[in-house]
Amino acid sequence: MYAQLVETGVKRLKTLEEMSEQERAFQEKIDAEIKIEPKNWMPDAYRQTLIRQISQHAHSEIVGMLPEGNWVTRAPSLKRKLQLMAKIQDEAGHGLYLYSAMETLGADRDEEVAKLHSGKAKYSSIFNYPTLNWADMGAVGWLVDGAAIVNQVVLQRTSYGPYSRAMIRICKEESFHQRQGYEILLTMMRHGTQAQKDMVQDAINRLWWPALMMFGPSDEHSPNSAQSMAWKIKRQSNDELRQRFIDQTVPQLELLGCTAPDPELKWNAERGHYDFGAIQWEEFYEVLKGNGPCNQERLATRRKAIEDGAWVRAAAVAHARKKHNKNAA
Amino acid sequence: MQASMSCRPKWGICKMNQDLIQYLLRLGDSALIQGQRLCEWCGRAPALEEELALMNVGLDLVGQARNWLEYAAELANDGRDADHLAFRRDERAYRNLLLVEQPNGDFAVTVLKQFFYDAWHLAVLEGLTHSSDSRLQGIAAKAVKEVTYHLRRSSEWVERLGDGTEESHQRMLAAIPQLWRFTVELSDSDAVEQRLHAAGLIGDPQQIAAAWQQQVERTFDSATLPLPAPACHFYLSGRQGLHSEHLGLLLAEMQFLPRAYPDATW
């Protein structure tokens, strides 16, 4: 998802008996669905896990602007340009909002961004794929934001108050983006030329599997899930969410008149779900390690933005100080 | 009264309508090109807050461009719509200010370019809010609110960078001569604008020039930046479609899809 493979630093779950009094009170609160707020006591591992998860999520919003930035200067009409600009602006807003939620845990935005730039912190694997035609702007909205929503709808009930509230707001905007993305594709499929229809299918072919990978490794290879679930940071397993996404997306795919690049994708009446082919997990881990198609470019762009902007930020601070001194005098 | 109603189509497009179409293209093209340049900052701004602000200003401007170009298309009534005007005209047919087509440069150039444009833009829009044409008046009334914020933001950045650190001051000093000559278009006017003003459709070009000058003087003063002597004409004119070489490349990128797929529906 926007946060994948988030380390909890915990090898196995403690039983209630093994917990200290504070830990037990904390866990009981979680079990009773009472939200944890910034000033409440929390185990350090819970705090660190949340910082990692929320910062990953925020980094993903910011890095996620880049594949769209690749087309915003080439949007094919004034309406599409305005829509894409508004979407990108929303994403910057989400990033800001999430960094603020993260700062309520005592983390520092600049420090966490520095971790992103050094390669230590991660962001969603999906944004390491290039956007190669205009239909990608539709497919990203439909599939990538769509996958994000499946995850984030559940995260609205996450145990940490500020994160949960951020998710409620972000979900509203994301579902708007998803509908808009789908509408881009639908317009191209229903009213477009053959060349445009080919663009749509091409975009789906390239983004389908990376979108499924967004939910993270399958449950048996998701070592941190048990603790995150016990803390109710995470509320449903990767595989459950992935299945839900596929089940809701395939009918939309059919309505478009497109296909998924998966010959094994078919309805299983017995399970009441779609069956799908094996995900190439090697690719997922390689992309996460930094060996995806655009990892270097994405990080280089972000690093350069912050490095090139250093003098601007320094000037803003210096000016504010001068103004403050003038007012004080 | 809408301008289109003052003309009888069977006698062809009257002179005033032609003037107004020209003027709408100037407004729309400048807003669009400035917005396009702001899009280029996506993911590259010096701080996250600036990502939001730059895209937000760009969004306002492209929205305004759409309004102006739609009106121009209606008046021209030649089968072209706003998208056609934006995405199918060559650089010689574009009527934007030379200033806005200039490359973004560093953040000092971007800020200064935005400021020069905003100071002019607000004065122009304020003039238009008194237009005898209700459509012009309506679009301008909405845009004035947006551009008031744009100018507040860009003038604050000029002050911050001008009176910030030694480096930021030097960068602003370097940005001024890069952009200054293009400001000649912000304080002169041509026969089209004078006729439109005389007809009560747009604000007084002299007042606009004076308002621009005052705003720049004020902001440069608090930014501790030296004010150059007024810029001189230098044989290019955005109004006449005589642009710098930068516009053609900008349009090649912006217009790529509609040009490459002329029959497509997006």
TrEMBL record, chain A:
It comes from Pseudomonas laurentiana. InterPro entries: Aromatic_CoA_ox/epox, Ferritin-like, Ferritin-like_SF, PaaA, PaaA_PaaC. Its EC number is 1.14.13.149. It is an enzyme of class 1 (oxidoreductase). This is 1,2-phenylacetyl-CoA epoxidase subunit A. One of its GO terms (biological process) is phenylacetate catabolic process. Gene3D superfamilies: 1.20.1260.10. GO terms for molecular function: phenylacetyl-CoA 1,2-epoxidase activity. The gene is paaA. GO terms for cellular component: cytosol. Coiled coil: none annotated. It comes from the Bacteria. Keywords: Oxidoreductase.
